[in-house]
């Protein structure tokens, strides 16, 4: 169990003698001394950094799963016991238990650390094998887990230092369950104070601009479960959506006459793009020629990638439209359902509005006028005042029995959340099968699957909880000083969206809210 009473401890590398007669063997394996303290057990632990482990020929380290949480592990025959870091222990299910005896872990730099707690019944997955084990809780800096001699002996493990593999004898047949990571140098982050100290000591410092690089989107066939539902992720929407129980209706105020606006002037490049996009919409069946007395003008808005989005200016139609009072859910109420979730997938519907038909009687109201003709929409266009409501109603109806169990829906985004990978496999399968059956389609490039952290409507969600999206915080911090009531109202609206994260928000914002009062 320990090394009390042993004057020499075996290890790797060349040893050195110390003054009290104990012997240190190898890189960081310390002798326990020649005398044991009464009632005190001793243990030793290998000392190594993450940088050193993959580069060392005689050390095996890599990533394992503990309760579906990735952990960086060191497999070390030089350690008498197996340990888990206090930080990781606080993130996984279960509670610490008293060890039952005092254990002194000798450190390679001298001295020791007393450990008193153990975490029992920890689920650990190495390769394709699931095991349960007890780990002593200790403050570890470089590794999440150290699997020592006690674990290796219990599992009849054979360590192949040449191949950097661990083999377990299972049913008489050796089975490789763990292959060490190759050398990876992690990013080292230091504080600005530390930088100044190093500069004052004469260290060379280089300033580099770090930019985001575009990551390749995984192919459909590379994503578990998702690859079985390729029909849900078409490259484009072709043809009208099926008849659904919900159609988009446009109810106008009584006595309102049809409104028609003269088309806007366009530059030659915009006219070419207009003609192209009209032809595409006609080919897909989303619009048709119209004789409606209604007519809205069109314009283009440039996207981030430089392409142009065709927009219909339905401002006049919206002004005379009866507003739908169907309540959109509060995003903070939705996020309250995520407690305990650790695995997430976010599904972004492809051109969601175009997956819902316009009620036949209201199609003429969607008409728009262009230089190339008069057209009307058969599917729900962007820009109508009540547009989010019917699509939200459709999504709620589609996933009614799963809402707040493992599905959150907000307009055209679906968040699937689960406590572990096994649950997530079932949940994701149900959601994708439902989309396939209802002929609802998503855009693969905007979806994320099997992640431990996801951005969802301005919030970063993970197993640790919900926090603000740094990009949104930056927008608030860089907001220019409001100069009128409208700008003050806009700023308070954005900042107020995150009031749950700011204690005493109403008091802090009161000087601004007072400016909105009349008089």
UniProtKB/TrEMBL annotation:
Pfam families: RVP_2, RVT_1. Residues 282-461 form the Reverse transcriptase domain. Keywords: Endonuclease, Hydrolase, Nuclease, Nucleotidyltransferase, Protease, RNA-directed DNA polymerase, Transferase. The keyword Transferase applies. Residues 1-33 are annotated as: Disordered. GO terms for biological process: proteolysis. This is Retrovirus-related Pol polyprotein from transposon opus. It comes from Sesamum radiatum (Black benniseed).
